[in-house]
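From the shared-data thread, chain only:
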Amino acid sequence: MGVMSSVKHVPSSKPAAPGIDRLSALLSRFRVRTHLFFSGSLCGLTPFEAQPGRAFLHVLRAGTLEVSHPQRLQGLPRRLRVSEPMLLFYPRAVTHRFHNPPREGSAFSCATLDFEGGAHNPLVAALPPLIALPLREADGLQATLDVLFAETDRVRCGSRLLADRLFEVVLIQLLRWLLDHPAQAGIRSGLILGLADPHLARALVAVHAEPGAAWTLPRLAEAAALSRTTFAARFRQTVGTTPMDYVADWRITLACAGLREGRAVKALAAELGYGSAAALSKAFKQRQGVAPRAWPAREAPA
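Structure, as C-alpha cells:
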C-alpha cells in the first residue's frame, strides 16, 4: 500500500450480509450534501482547516503526497505518506495539511460534505477520523471516478452539479467498502462493525427502517436469527451497547433530527413508538439532559 499508517492490511472478504441494504435507511433519514470545491494540481503546502459540521473527501489522482495532522486524535496518524492514487475521507472536523512536491505537484479532485445532523449523524459518529483507501482496492470505484474526472477536466453544461452528485456516489461506494472491510479501516466496534455482521445487520436495518415498532429483545433476536442470549452478547460486544439501549438512542437521534426541522413533539412521539409526548419528553431528557422544547436552543450555533 502507498499509505504509512497504523492500519494493517487484511485480505478482502465477501460482503458480510448479502441481500440486505445496510445503508439506505440511514442515508435517507440523515442526508449528506457534497460540493466539489477543487480539481487540479496542488504544489507546496495546502492547509485545510477544521470546520464544525463539515467533512472533506479528497481524491489523489496522480503524484505523491504527505499529509500532516496537528490534532492529536486516536486513529489519526501525525504524518501520512501516500505514493499511489488514494481516497482520503475526513468525516469530522479535522485540520489537515497537504505537503506536495513544490514544482510538479499532485493532481486532486476535492469535495466538502455536509452531513445532516453534523456530529450527531450516526454514520459520522461511527467512523474513524480518517479513512485512507487506495483506489485499486475498491471494486467499481474507478468507473465512477473516470466519469467524475471527465466532468471536472473540462467545463460543460451542468458539470458542477453532476460532479457534486458523483461525489455522493463515491461516498456511498466508500461506505460499502467500509461495511465489507471494517478491520482494514481500523474499526473495532460500533455501528459500522454491527452492520458488517450478517446477523446483527438484519436487526439493525430493521430498527433503522421501523424505529416506531414495538421492539423487544426477543423480537430483535428473532430478526437476527440468533438466540436471545447469543444475540444480546454479540450485539454488546460488537456495537458497544445493549440492543434496547441502541433502539432508544436511535429513536432519540431521530427525535433530534425532527426537532431541527421544527416538528412537534407529539407527532414525533407517535412516529417513534412512544405512547405520548410526555413519554418521549421523559426519554429525551434522560439522554440529552434537557426537554425536547429546550433542545433546539441549546444546539443552536452561538
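The domain at 197-299 is CATH 1.10.10.60 (Arc Repressor Mutant, subunit A).
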